[in-house]
Amino acid sequence: MATKSLSFFALFFTLFLVIFEVPEIEGQLCMREYVGDFPLSNCSAVETPLCHTKCRENGAEGGICYVAVEGEDEQRVESYKCLCNFCSETFCHDTPGPSQTLG
């Protein structure tokens, strides 16, 4: 009897991990940061299309520029990044849009 409940628990735990990790894994496969030959100084109207174009040249469906924020208050540091989308040309609603802040 104890073996049955232990097996059931192991199966339930494995399914739980699989169900909750799949969306995160898919997101990691779709969105990759572009590391290229141009530094992003900001997410301006000029650099956002440039990010999209560079991603398309590397086989992605599109790209998006965003501001990554680290730290708080006086120690806050902003860096501009370009994410390439390898799954679809349209971005889902929880992906940051041009000039939106992640933090």
Report on this model:
It is built from two helices and four strands, in the order αβαβββ. The protein is of the alpha+beta class and 103 residues long. It has a four-stranded mixed β-sheet with strand order 1-3-2-4. 16% of the residues are buried. One of its GO terms (cellular component) is extracellular region. Keywords: Secreted, Signal. GO terms for molecular function: sodium channel inhibitor activity.
Amino-to-carboxy terminus distance? 49 Å
Q: Summarize the helix and strand pattern as letters.
A: HEHEEE
Oligomer state of the chains in this structure: single chain
Largest sheet, if any?
4 strands, mixed
User: How many β strands by DSSP?
Assistant: 4
Bin the helical content: 25-40%
In DSSP terms (H or I, runs of 4 or more residues), the helix count works out at 2
Q: Provide the β-strand percentage band.
A: 15-25%
If strands are numbered along the chain, what order do they take across the biggest sheet?
Answer: 1-3-2-4
The assigned structural class equals: alpha+beta
Radius of gyration: 19 Å
Shape: elongated
Mean pLDDT: 70
| Poorly predicted runs of 5 or more residues | 22-27, 92-103
List the helices and strands and how they pair.
Blueprint: H1 2-30, E1 31-33, H2 47-57, E2 62-70, E3 77-85, E4 101-102
Parallel strand pairs: 2-4
Antiparallel strand pairs: 1-3, 2-3
